[in-house]
Amino acid sequence: MSFSHNVRECIRSTITDHDRRFACLYGMLLYGRSVTREEICLKSSSEVFRSMFPVLMKTVFGASVPLTMESCPRKDGSTLYIYRIEGEESVTTIRHAFHIHEDRRIDMRNLPTNSMGAFLGGVFLTCGTVTDPEKEYHLEFSAPTETLCSDLCEVLLTVGVHPSVTIRRYGWSAYLKSCDEIGDLLTFIGAQRCTLDLIDVQIDKDVKNHINRVNNCDMANIDKAISAAARQCGDIEEIIRNGGMKDLTPELRELAELRMENPHLSLAQISEMLSKPIGRSGVNHRFRKLAAIAEAYRRGQVHDE
Q1: Which one-letter DSSP state was computed for residue 137?
Q2: Rounded to 5 degrees, what are φ and ψ at 135?
Q3: Residue-wise over 204-243: b if at least 16 C-beta within 10 A, else e?
């Protein structure tokens, strides 16, 4: 099952009392596909939505509001479920119960104490998706109108998350890209278990990224050391070609011989092999002297050692 499905299952498990059922149903209806005087239409391919919506409708409205459902198979193998509430009388009953007016704004009168999470859970059930965190961090609400998208953003800000907005082919979308904010919102709407899964993925990614950074750093250092050793060997070969080894000081000659015999060793390893060990910086300083001598030979200058 998808990560979005798991979130919806978690939301379903938290809708346990009258206030939460009322708030959740309000979120589902308000953010449905369309609301007119004669019809309310909701569409979803979620099995959780398919099973929850009629139950909530019956719990809140009993048998007073008839509900029809049709299912449309899709090419990808999923099924689109379309629920309709038809007839001006039925629609008016719902619109009056939830104070849904022509402009379709969020009405806080429908949200009793501690039911905001259930309301946002209902919105998610109708128009929300969240990407598998193994792939990327992305949670999105596809609002049917610009006004509802704006209202939703204002509500999300009050619970501590900061959505961005974009216009897509099918409407307006409010989305989150921050792993921490997605986790905070999932917790708020009742999907704590999914938040823990999200945190586990984040930790795994952080560890892998750290390992990759360390490996990349190590490889960069190895490449740098190999390049430096090749350059040092090249300088020493230049000195040898010009018969300059006999003119080197004992310290430089010993270092040159060690490097030619051990081209793969690091400066620290070379320093430990000297008859009189010195620090890494001291070894590097001597190699710079050898480089200067080699450069003098390349330029045809006479070097007095």
Answers
A1: -
A2: -95, -55
A3: eeeeeeeeeeeeeeeeeeeeeeeeebeebeebbebbeebe
Could you tell me which of 248, 230, 236 has the C-alpha nearest to residue 298? 236
Identify whether residues 41 and 121 lie together within a single domain.
yes
| Positions of E strands within the chain | 34-35, 39-44, 68-73, 79-86, 128-130, 139-143, 164-168, 171-176
User: The tokens of 210 are what?
Assistant: 């750290």
155 and 20 assigned to the same domain: yes
Residues recorded for the chain: 305
46/14 same-domain check: yes
Closest listed residue to residue 23, CA positions, set 141, 106, 140: 106
Residues 238 and 153 in one domain: no
Please tell me the total count of domains within the chain.
2
Q: CA end-to-end span of the chain, whole Å?
A: 77
Judgement on whether residues 152 and 287 belong to the same structural domain of the protein: no
Q: Are 273 and 259 in contact (CB under 8 A)?
A: no
Q: How far apart are CA 115 and CA 20, in angstroms?
A: 6
| Predicted local distance difference test score (pLDDT) of residue 128 | 95
Q: Are residues 235 and 178 in the same domain?
A: no
pLDDT tens, residue by residue, 43-73: 999 999 999 999 999 999 988 889 999 999 9
Q: Which domain holds residue 270?
A: 212-298
CA distance readout (Å), 249 to 19, 245, 267, 283, 293: 90, 9, 19, 14, 12
Kindly report, residue by residue over 82-134, the tens digit of the pLDDT: 999 999 999 999 999 999 988 899 999 888 778 999 999 999 999 999 999 99
For residues 117 and 124, what is the distance between their CA atoms, to the nearest angstrom? 10
